[in-house]
Amino acid sequence: MAAYLIADIRVKDPAEFAAYGALATAVVERHGGRYLVRGGQVTRKEGDWSPSRLVVLEFDSMDAARAFYESDEYQAILGRRQRSADSDLVFVEGAG
Predict the structure, then answer these.
(1) What angle do the packed helices 72-84 and 62-70 form, to 10 degrees?
(2) Is pLDDT at 70 greater than 90 in this prediction?
(3) What Rg value do the Cα atoms of the chain yield, rounded?
(4) What pTM was estimated for this model as a whole?
(5) Rounded Cα gap, residues 55 and 47, in angstroms
(6) What 8-state DSSP symbol labels residue 57?
(7) Residues near 70 by beta carbon (within 8 Å), at least 6 away in sequence
């Protein structure tokens, strides 16, 4: 069953975040992840949530999503995202 990493990212340092993004793309792809949403325009229709930069990654399974996040390769660059942006991030299993 597919699994998704969903992140709401509030960039504080655009240059550092861009450097992180360039590195993260390759790591995501090497772990079988696919970007479904990567910072496109958000239009709120209900509620109070106003994500700044929304990112949705799809993985083949929850195990694959966790393996990506916990990999030495991703952990080596994670600090760049954490320094350059504030983030809320969740994993969710897909339907069916």
Answers:
(1) 70
(2) yes
(3) 13
(4) 0.91
(5) 19
(6) E
(7) none
